[in-house]
Amino acid sequence: MANLIVTGGAGFIGANFVHYWNKVQPQDKIIVLDLLTYAGNKHNLDGLDDVQLVEGDICDTDLVSKIIDENAIDTIVHFAAESHVDRSITGPDAFVTTNVIGTHSLLKAAKKAWLDQGTGKPHRFHHVSTDEVYGSLGPNDPAFSETTAYAPNSPYSASKAGSDHLVRAYHHTFGLETTTSNCSNNYGPFQFPEKLIPLFTLNALNGKPLPIYGDGMNVRDWLHVEDHCRGIAACLDKGRPGETYNIGGGQELPNLTVIEEICRAVDNAFAADPSLAERFPNAPAAQGRKSEELKTFVTDRKGHDRRYAIDETKARDELGYAPARDFPQGFAETLDWFLAREDWWQPLLERAAITR
């Protein structure tokens, strides 16, 4: 039996991980530490009555230490982060505070509890990072591996790179048992509707423009969030302390291809279920038109990386990890979830105008 702190566990990936871990390891104790900022939602944890939510800041080292000590915590899975690139361009300070200083706060508390107090307790600090720390690839460049040099191009990716380096340093300097995973672009349930897939899905349902940056040919590797959770679980189970593992979805696609799949799937859903036209009358599909009519090209984002791609050979060989879904399957599941959970996303759209 393990006792876990999951930071950012009320956010998108963190909440999916809590649901996944609670399902596969129901005997374990999980404490979610989340500040419940705009992207954190306590309702993401509905149905998990045995999971404790602590509303607090990872920068509060004393609070983290108290949680570790009072609950005999032996595992920290660290998701908490500012993660939206556009927000990092307009307001980078929050990214440095949360992603760098916050990670350091957690590392200090973990070192104090697991090393300085001399308990010798087996432990693991798993840090969840991003492929964006590696920068941008040319069309013919090999995919990112764990030995690719860091070259972050946005305040977001730079702050995540800084946190990665701190985790590495705490292992090599102090002996803290850490692992890090760098993932590709996630999608799936509970994703806050500022990211491409939920934003474009909800815009298609509501008849709003689909704003495409530049020429739409920026390439990303797409990873269903449950496959990502399986990869993290494999890191915790089989990952070697001090090592980094790239977790990808094996679905390297231009944004335009992703958007076309969203439009196709939405149109097909309306054709299969006439009741959707009553629920979403502003959708082109409700009026016998194509969702692709909503596509609108807009000025490209500053510093927009052209291509990301993940080489997950190390995770496959050492952890036995492989994604279980291709993008059409994964998005079909995601669309079904959003259609079934209007109660979850509609209040978000009502509280604030979500723009990309």
TrEMBL record:
GO molecular function: dTDP-glucose 4,6-dehydratase activity
Keyword Iron set for record: no
Keyword Zinc found: no
Entry keywords, A to Z: Lyase, NAD
Enzyme Commission number(s): 4.2.1.46
Reported cofactor(s): NAD(+)
Domain NAD(P)-binding, chain residue ranges per copy: 5-333
Reactions the enzyme catalyzes: dTDP-alpha-D-glucose = dTDP-4-dehydro-6-deoxy-alpha-D-glucose + H2O
Single Gene Ontology BP annotation: nucleotide-sugar metabolic process
InterPro entries (UniProt xref): dTDP_Gluc_deHydtase (IPR005888), NAD(P)-bd_dom (IPR016040), NAD(P)-bd_dom_sf (IPR036291)
Pfam families noted in UniProt: GDP_Man_Dehyd (PF16363)
PANTHER family for this protein: DTDP-D-GLUCOSE 4,6-DEHYDRATASE-RELATED
Recorded family membership: Belongs to the NAD(P)-dependent epimerase/dehydratase family. dTDP-glucose dehydratase subfamily.
Protein name (Swiss-Prot/TrEMBL): dTDP-glucose 4,6-dehydratase
Species this protein is from: Novosphingobium aureum
Phylogenetic lineage: Bacteria, Pseudomonadati, Pseudomonadota, Alphaproteobacteria, Sphingomonadales
Gene name of the record: rfbB
